[in-house]
Amino acid sequence: MHAKGLQFLVAFASAGALAVGVPAGAHVGSGSGPPTSIGTGGAAASVERLATQTAIDTLRRGGNAIDAAVASAAVLGVTEPFSCGIGGGGFMVIRTAGGNVTTIDGRETAPAAMHPTSFFENGAPLPFAEARYSGRSVGVPGTVEGWVDALEKYGTMSLAEVLAPAIHVARHGYLVDQVWFDQANSNRDFFDDVPASAALFLDPDGTPRDVGSVFTNPALAKTYERIAHLGAKGFYRGKVADALVETVQHPPIAPTANHVWRSGVMKMRDLHTYQAPERAPTHVNYRGLDVYSMGPPSSGGSTVGEALNILEGYDLSSMTRERALHYYLEASRYSFADRNAYLADPAYFDVPLDGLLSEEYAATRRALITERAAPGAVPPGDPHPYEGAETTTHLTTSDKLGNVVSYTFTIESTGGAGLVVPGFGFLLNNELTDFNFDSTTHPNRVEGGKRPRSSMAPTIVTSAGKPFLALGSPGGATIITTVLQILLDRVDLGMTLPQAIADPRASQRNAVNTGAEPAFLTTPERTALELRGHRFANAGEIGAATGIEFLAGGGVLAAAEPVRRGGGSAMTELP
Q1: What are the CA-CA distances from residue 97 to residues 133, 162, 466, 554 (Å)?
Q2: Taking the CB of residue 517, how many other CB atoms lie within 10 A of it?
Q3: DSSP 3-state assignment of 62?
Q4: Residue 267 CB: number of other CB atoms within 10 A?
Q5: Overall domain count for the chain
């Protein structure tokens, strides 16, 4: 219950201890820790202890890493309702036991009737909050179709089997913690406009459910049961689909609402025609390692890959930490300039992906970097001459056979569009605000059927054809820099994976100021970097990463955040 976008509980009551005083069948709240586990067999890491336990329980019942990922994600839809769920979408990177790496694109799509001025009124774009809290911001959800496709193609368990833990948790409940309360409270002024949202997340006095109280969601349990019985049709057709479209077209708002909630244009056909395509991953080679991630419509894999190509031209391991961080920040700056200019849905815009990921193009960008920081935003380069060269909550799972999953999924902003589908227990996404909705000319402008650009960067790294790392993070555009900094720390700067995940973060996204965590701002590197011209601004907490490292001799290390977002949890199948 600690991650945005992006971001499990125990399958059955017998699988986890119940707290004294908690109603029979209810689960203890998420909690944190341990953030690191070393063992053998499969592994899992997520933002909460019981979430991770679900993945491990699935592995121990004979499932593989894909089964574990979907089962865990379904429970996160119950326990992290403000961050993820079946009302949203995401990206899954899969490495099969046979060594093939592929991806499943469960990103939301814009309804067919959307157009570049859909978020304009009186000739001007809507403010973000007015665009977000509306039916207009809701993209056609892709999570369910992504789960179904992943299981059918790469899993070993049935949809009913992997949804069983989530159904149990939704029906019997779990304890509300402070993070859950705070996330609900941040949406309180909008939730209380929507009777279905208020009834689910707020007490009768209008405040969020109390910390320590038991939260149940029987409506979501019934929705999951319907999907378990009917498959994807249980979501994209029939009662759920009818209610979803009605909520988008006519947001069910209370007469006392103190905000304007605009209607959306989603139709049943938008749901009927949704597909979660399987796509080739992005791929770069860095220090002899093969780095695979998510391609367009996500900008995660291409931007991390371009930055790694730029950084490979420096002997970072021989440098002071301050100098290595300087190059990391500048490589990120130049890669983000290209990301902002060229990344969009490849079905609507000819993304020059090969050029962006070519080593020759990276050399032209590296040549622009000096020993001092650029004073602000830099212009994009031109990757087109290099076409034809080789080429956004997060959870990670693996199994003893060699299957590995890196999965990031979300409903976009914390609380999504603020709209719970009445009678079915889940929030809808506001993913269409990920378009450049204030532009009619940008490659990432709004268009019917189009997938908005994402920053999700689920990543799998192999060494000599064998798994080495799997990692990712939630956090909007900071996902990219979080993954990049963890790779820099682990591969170049001598940190262990747990150290790299815990390391204070700085995020340069082609701006005058580099966003940095408070802990980074107190380091001596901050002062030294400022002498190079870097400017820093307090960005609060950045990301909430999880990862798995595959050790020599068949061992496995799972790692999660020790502190961020309440701390995460990591476990191995055989400790």
Answers
A1: 43, 20, 10, 14
A2: 20
A3: coil
A4: 16
A5: 1
pLDDT in tens, 145-170: 999 999 999 999 999 999 999 999 99
* Residue 513: strand, helix, or coil: strand
Ranges assigned E (strand) in 254-332 = 278-279, 282-286, 289-293
Catalytic residue among 392, 397, 481, 572: 392
Q: Does some domain include residue 455? A: no
404 — phi, psi (to 5°)? -135, 140
Beta carbons of 137 and 434 less than 8 angstroms apart = no
Whether residue 550 is predicted with pLDDT greater than 50 in this model: the reply is yes
461 forms beta bridges with 291, 469
In a domain, 164, yes or no: yes
Q: Residue 299: what are its φ and ψ, rounded to 5°?
A: -95, 0
Number of Cβ within 10 Å of residue 367's Cβ equals 10
Encoding tokens for residue 94?
């899969």
User: Please, is 364 exposed, middle or buried when counting C-beta atoms within 10 Å of its C-beta (0-12, 13-18, 19+)?
Assistant: middle
Q: Say if residue 378 is exposed, middle or buried (CB neighbours under 10 Å; 0-12, 13-18, 19+).
A: middle
First and final C-alpha spacing in the chain: 25
Asked if residue 137 belongs to a domain, the reply is yes
Say whether 527 is catalytic: no
**DSSP 8-state code for residue 303:** H
Please tell me the predicted confidence (pLDDT) of residue 378.
98
132 within domain boundaries: yes
- The answer for residues whose C-beta is within 8 angstroms of residue 199's C-beta and 6 or more apart is none
* Per-residue pLDDT tens digits for 457-513: 999 999 999 999 999 999 999 999 999 999 999 999 999 999 999 999 999 999 999
**Domain encompassing residue 245:** 13-37+57-89+107-277+408-434
Q: What is the largest CA-CA distance in the chain?
A: 67
The string of DSSP letters for 225-265 reads HHHHHHTTHHHHSHHHHHHHHHHHHS----TT--S------
**Strand positions, DSSP E, 452-491:** 459-463, 466-472
Burial 281-308 (b: 16+ CB within 10 A, else e): bbbbebeebbbbbbbbbbbbbbbbbbbb
Helix or strand run (H / E) with residue 121: strand 120-121
142, two tokens: 């892709």
